[in-house]
Structures are given as structure tokens and as C-alpha cells.
Design brief:
Layout (H helix, E strand, L loop, with lengths): L3 H15 L17 H17 L9 H14 L3 H13 L6 H4 L14 H18 L5 H21 L7 H9 L10 H13 L6 H9 L5
Family: Belongs to the NPH3 family.
Pfam families: NPH3
Protein name: NPH3 domain-containing protein
């Protein structure tokens, strides 16, 4: 029987050969939009690849999973395929980088560039699995959630520069993490500060802190 990592590597090579990274650009930036026939072919290729990924964690990299997820979202694959990718990506979220999470939005109604909703779906899947296994006395689970919190706050610092990003999406993603995830709020505060500058808003320091900490009474 072939090692899971070897199968995963073969699938990665196959995807690079037969699955163009069209999802890395917004629809409006694509000089040639794929025909329905081409799109359907790519859907089939992607769904076959996902079905062949070994169940073992780490058989494929989180970067590869997120690339497939971005393509799946762009191509409009079946709900089950997309859900499987979100679940798998959630299991390995702490291993990723901000760069891997910068999915461009392909919605015709969204004016903002980054698909923050897709990142939110992966984070939600991670949290479901983390809460199922977490224990207050488990130092490893605390380490993992804090690493993910740092990742999320760093991600927010990037998407906060998108002038069309709705503030509600920023706050929703920031507030989705449990209190134990952050020992301090400096990185989150920086993201909020970037967002306010991009929006040309001038809030007093106490209001910025309230926004940063997600305090609803402010």
C-alpha cells in the first residue's frame, strides 16, 4: 500500500498539471473566462482529486487544500466536495500562512477583493473540531488556538486594507475566537487601526479599544 504522503504528492502534481489556478484572480481580471465545457471539466478533475485524498492528516499540505478550496469556490463544485475541503483545511489550519488565506472574492455582488467568508468557514470548522478535543488543562490545545488567533489577526491586518471590506465582516471574524485564544490584543488592535485609517475614520482611543475588543456596549 502506498504511503498517504506519496499519494498526496502525486495528487498535487496532477492538480498542477490539469487544474489551472484561475481562482487566484477575480472574475473581472480574467482576460479569458472559462467556457462552461472547460469549467465542467475542471469541476470533474477537482472532485476526483478531493475524493482521492487520503484521510490521514498531513497527507497533503494545508496550502494545497486551501488552493483546492479556492478553486472549488470559483468553479461551483458540489456542496459535499466544498464541505469536505473546508473540514480538512480546518483540521490543519494552524499550519497555514496568511498568504494561503488570501482568497480573492468571486461574488458578482461583493465589492471587496478578499473572500473573508470562505476564511470564516474554515475557521468555524477548525473551532468545531478544536472545541470537541480541547481541555482547559491541555497545553497543546491552548498553544494551537493561540497560534490560530495570531494567524487570524495577521490576516485581518491584510484584509483591513481593502477599502470595500465591510466592518461587520472584520468584527465577526475577530469575535469568532474564544477569549483564551488571545493573551493580548496588540495585533488585533493594529488591524482595526489599519481599517480605520483606510476608511479615513478618526475614532478616539477608547472607542478603538472597544471596537478592537468586541465590546458590544460601546
Amino acid at each position: 500500500m502506498l504511503p498517504p504522503q506519496l499519494i498526496g504528492e502525486a495528487l498535487h502534481v496532477y492538480a498542477c498539471r490539469w487544474l489551472p489556478e484561475t481562482a487566484q484572480r477575480r472574475i473581472t481580471e480574467c482576460s479569458v473566462f472559462p467556457t462552461e465545457q472547460t469549467k465542467e471539466k475542471h469541476q470533474q478533475v477537482l472532485e476526483i482529486i478531493v475524493s482521492m485524498i487520503p484521510s490521514d492528516r498531513g497527507s497533503v499540505s494545508i496550502g494545497f487544500l486551501l488552493r483546492l478550496l479556492s478553486e472549488a469556490n470559483f468553479l461551483g463544485v458540489s456542496h459535499s466536495t466544498k464541505a469536505e475541503l473546508i473540514k480538512r483545511a480546518g483540521r490543519q489550519l494552524e499550519e497555514t500562512t496568511v498568504r494561503d488565506l488570501l482568497f480573492p472574492s468571486h461574488s458578482s455582488t461583493d465589492r471587496h477583493f478578499y473572500d473573508i467568508d470562505l476564511v470564516g468557514a474554515v475557521l468555524e470548522s477548525f473551532l468545531v473540531q478544536w472545541r470537541r478535543q480541547a481541555s482547559p488543562d491541555d497545553s497543546e490545545s491552548v498553544r494551537v488556538i493561540r497560534k490560530v488567533a495570531q494567524l487570524v489577526d495577521s490576516y485581518l491586518q491584510v484584509v483591513a486594507r481593502d477599502v470595500n471590506m465591510p466592518s461587520l465582516k472584520i468584527v465577526t471574524l475577530a469575535e469568532s475566537l474564544p477569549g483564551i485564544a488571545r493573551t493580548e490584543h496588540d495585533d488585533l488592535y493594529k488591524a482595526i487601526n489599519i481599517y480605520l485609517k483606510v476608511k479615513h475614520l478618526d475614532l478616539k482611543e477608547d472607542k478603538k479599544e472597544c471596537f478592537c475588543l468586541g465590546i458590544q456596549t460601546c
